[in-house]
Amino acid sequence: MATYHQIPDDEKGYELDLFCVPKHYEEDLDRVIIPHGLIMDRTERLARDIVRDMGGHHIVALCVLKGGYKFFSDLLDYIKALNQNCDKSVPLTVDFIRLKSYCNDQSTNSVKVIGGDELSTLTGKNVLIVEDIVETGRTMETLLSLLSECNPKMVKVVSLLVKRTPRGSGYRPDYMGFEVPDWFLVGYALDYNEYFRDLGHICILNEKEAMDRWMNHWMKH
Ligand code: IMP
Ligand code: MG
């Protein structure tokens, strides 16, 4: 069973004013839920757990774009640091896949592969899928079934966040950073219509105003 930090439904998070957020998002955010430093500290530990379990084999780290790119890059930096500083090290290569399941703030039923490398290159490999957030679990279940057709040797999934939601399929990743309430979160590469990826902390939007503003912005540009 994966260990993780559970963020409760009554979590208040932190006042925005306590941290630095980009000026262009100040009006749209309500609270900081997971500060950047805490994301990094948890990621460092996930890297250690992954190397402990998968070390000794060559790992292909598969980044689920776009939301996974920050977590992917930071997680791999920590794995690299372990490789540089331990007697045992694990060769690491990278691969990317682009999937889309979200429209505005709603998860849709169809999960589409809209880019990335050929999955057939993963045949016989030890694959670590790196994802930002699991909500219904559909994206990950679709990707895992696509991947199984290519017969990888081993597949593990690490997701920074897992949402506690009645819409969930029951799917749980092998490694997870935090379990979060059924809120729409942005920042650290999690987006709302492509915005907020350039925000370091994981935050909650001040709902309606922010959504209207960035929805209009997106439609105009
Ligand atoms: P699932 O297929 O419902 O598990 O959805 C997973 C995908 O939806 C993730 O890879 C994200 O890209 C996106 N997603 C789910 N919840 C959020 C959120 O709170 N903020 C931003 N994106 C989200
Ligand atoms: Mg994603």
From TrEMBL:
In what residue span(s) does the Phosphoribosyltransferase domain sit? Answer: 38-192
Q: Which CDD domains match?
A: PRTases_typeI (cd06223)
SUPFAM superfamilies documented for this protein:
PRTase-like
The family note in this entry says: Belongs to the purine/pyrimidine phosphoribosyltransferase family.
Question: Where is it found, in Gene Ontology cellular component terms?
Answer: cytosol
Annotated source species: Oncorhynchus tshawytscha (Chinook salmon)
Q: Which UniProt keywords apply?
A: Cytoplasm, Glycosyltransferase, Magnesium, Metal-binding, Nucleotide-binding, Purine salvage, Transferase
GO function term, MF aspect, one: nucleotide binding
Function statement: Converts guanine to guanosine monophosphate, and hypoxanthine to inosine monophosphate. Transfers the 5-phosphoribosyl group from 5-phosphoribosylpyrophosphate onto the purine. Plays a central role in the generation of purine nucleotides through the purine salvage pathway.
Q: What class of enzyme is it?
A: transferase
List localization entries: Cytoplasm
Per the record, what are the reactions this protein catalyses?
GMP + diphosphate = guanine + 5-phospho-alpha-D-ribose 1-diphosphate; IMP + diphosphate = hypoxanthine + 5-phospho-alpha-D-ribose 1-diphosphate
User: Which pathway does this chain act in?
Assistant: Purine metabolism; IMP biosynthesis via salvage pathway; IMP from hypoxanthine: step 1/1
Q: Which EC number(s) does UniProt give?
A: 2.4.2.8
Cite the record's note on assembly: Homotetramer.
Where it mainly occurs, coarsely classed, is cytoplasm
Q: Which cofactor does it need?
A: Mg(2+)
Name this polypeptide is given: Hypoxanthine phosphoribosyltransferase
**One GO biological process term:** IMP salvage
Against Pfam families, the record matches this protein to: Pribosyltran
